[in-house]
Amino acid sequence: MDAVVGGQSFTVTRGGQQIGQLVPLRDRRTFLPRADFVFGSQAAAEIDLTEFRADQDAVYADDAGDPFAR
Fold first, then answer.
1. How far apart (Å, rounded) are the C-alpha atoms in residues 36 and 25?
2. Chunked in runs of 10, what are the mean pLDDT values of the chain (70 residues)?
3. Number of C-alpha atoms within 13 angstroms, CB side, residue 41?
4. Taking phi first (over 0 means left), then psi (-120 to 50 degrees means alpha), and beta for anything else, what does residue 65 get?
5. pTM to 2 decimals?
6. Going along the chain, which residue ranges are E strands?
């Protein structure tokens, strides 16, 4: 486990067959710095909000009703 914490990965075998991998978890950030978000968003496609809404209306039912009604 110390080796995994140190960044090493291992292949798990049973009877000579590979059955899995033991790999370190990536760091999970709960906060994305604004500069990183802005940089990543620069390549995002432009979205026409009217067309987006029309596409959603065509796919999803708008008459779902009251989810709490019995």
1. 21
2. 92 94 84 89 89 88 73
3. 9
4. left
5. 0.38
6. 10-14, 17-22
DSSP secondary structure letter of residue 30: S
- Cβ neighbours of residue 8 under 8 Å, at least 6 residues apart? 24
Q: Taking Cα atoms as reference points, which of 6, 39, 47 lies closest to residue 24?
A: 6
The C-alpha atoms of residue 10 and residue 70 are separated, in whole angstroms, by 53
CB distance 8 to 22 below 8 Å: no
Q: At 3, is the secondary structure helix, strand, or coil?
A: helix
In total, the chain counts a number of residues equal to 70
